[in-house]
Amino acid sequence: MMWLTLLRITTLRKPEIVKADTFSLENYNEAMRVLKSINDVKEAADIYKEKLPDEAQAAYYQLVYYPAVATTNVIKMQIYSGINKQYFKQGRVSANVYAGLLEESIEFDKELENIYSKNMPGGVGYQCKTCRI
Prior knowledge:
There is one protein chain. This protein is an all-alpha fold. Helix content is 69%, strand content 0%. Helix 3 runs antiparallel to helix 4. It is globular.
């Protein structure tokens, strides 16, 4: 189920071309539906991660967890940015909530990259050489 949801999210728009206004905040509740799907993917990835033995953690993190969670986190950052911008333009105080959620997502991205590059479970570390957000 997690893979089907992830596949649907990543085929709607490629994560590298998602912008703050890609998913509509006004039509069909699109942005909020995508956010819910993203949260479902992370929740499922966390559940599977907890169930695996220690010797399988590095492979799972590298091949499944990091690609799924980091990809959806990038999309989540863009959606939070779009909500923040729209709410700010409307003069809503709740724009600050989404600014905070965006900051949390940025910090989570740094944490994911740090684990992937330096603290891979099982003692295997890989230098992530891709551009960061």
